Here is the input.
Amino acid sequence: MADFLSGSVRIAYRDEAPNAPAGLEPALLIHGFASNLAVNWRQPSWFGALLESGRRVIAIDNRGHGESEKLYDPADYHCRLMARDAVNLLAHLGVARADVIGYSMGARIAAYVALDAPRRVRRLILGGLGDRLVTGAGLPENLAEAMEAPSLDDLADPTQRLFRAFADRNGADRRALAACIRGARQAPAISEVARIVSPTLVVVGTHDTIAGDPFKLAAMLRNGRGLEVPGRDHNKTVGDRAFKEEGVKFLNEE
Here is the structure.
């Protein structure tokens, strides 16, 4: 792992080159809430799939997550601040343009990257987030309470239990995650989403009850395409082989 300063916040990242570069744009990977770049991207073999396609792979640990700096003020987790971290990482590495892939909260951040720095984004993949990008402000706010609960046994709500168990399994800083849930509650307007010019693939599992409809979001975009992953819920879609295969194929299109 390496790190750099995005403003005054220390951000950790990985930057890996393929064995046989194919002259393609690098891929920038932005993970979801309570995860990190290893859990979200390396373990499900996204690194391998993209490196094998001839792409340089750059992955970020979002602020408050993984090995990046932990912050405890919700104001430090505005989606546009986290999008700026991603853009600053590209600038730090001297990368003018990349294909950007985000999952869940990372997809929301990736959408703001495409809105705020459109020249930095060639193609965009939004995974685990459909039309709730615009109809909702993020994951349920009560996940902050789930992070602050004394233990998993104190929670009855299935979604709270799911994310609390996930955070505990990843050894996450739960106080930082509670601040993140409270601070990263921004939803772009439909009119803003319509300004995204990058070709965009929107991917959601058919059993995902959190993300919303991928086809509705794709229809809001100038150049959007929806994809459903059969039989997968919110947590399992990211590692699905079909998602990786279709994602790489989409990035390789002219």
